[in-house]
Specification:
The chain is mainly beta. The protein has a single domain, classed as Protein of unknown function DUF192 (Jelly Rolls, Sandwich), CATH 2.60.120. The protein contains 3 helices and 9 strands; from the N terminus they run E-E-E-H-E-E-E-E-E-H-E-H.
Length: 155
């Protein structure tokens, strides 16, 4: 999430999760396609862009389906930072550039860690998925990304 503003929690740039229950609230889902060396992986995502939802991100979620995630539309190209405050599950946090390539990944971020972390490179989008996803599927810096239905699903 963006630290101070979101998800796992974004730090000055957004963050972590929705709903107090354990499952994501019903919402229109978009898709993020990750073109790795081992083939295309598709993640069904909730899309958030409002500051409040970016700040909350995946906080308080007890479960995230294996091929699910949250996509943050950060609004600007910046070196965004995230933390894991109030996040209950380990996450991989992928920072995606405006030209739709993975700029860098924070792998296996641990729950409740309040240290802000970034990848030292500008990004416009941030994708949170279950911890270990990137390694398991060969996703790394430079991986090409495609969006499907992202703007229509944004909240």
């Amino acid at each position: 999430m963006p630290n101070g503003s979101g998800g796992a929690s974004a730090s000055a740039s957004g963050g972590g999760g929705g709903g107090g229950g354990g499952h994501a609230p019903a919402a229109a889902l978009a898709k993020v396609h990750l073109e790795s060396a081992s083939g295309t992986r598709t993640v069904a995502v909730e899309v958030v862009k409002s500051p409040g939802l970016v700040q909350k991100g995946l906080m308080y979620r007890k479960y995230l389906a294996p091929e699910a995630g949250m996509l943050f539309l950060m609004g600007d190209d910046d070196d965004h930072y995230f933390w894991m405050k109030n996040t209950l599950i380990p996450l991989d946090i992928m920072f995606i550039t405006g030209d739709l390539q993975v700029a860098g990944i924070l792998e296996n971020m641990q729950p409740h860690d309040t240290r802000s972390k970034g990848v030292g490179k500008p990004s416009r989008y941030v994708l949170e998925v279950n911890g270990g996803y990137a390694k398991a599927h060969g996703i790394a810096a430079g991986t090409k990304v495609r969006f499907e239905g992202v703007e229509a699903a944004a909240r």
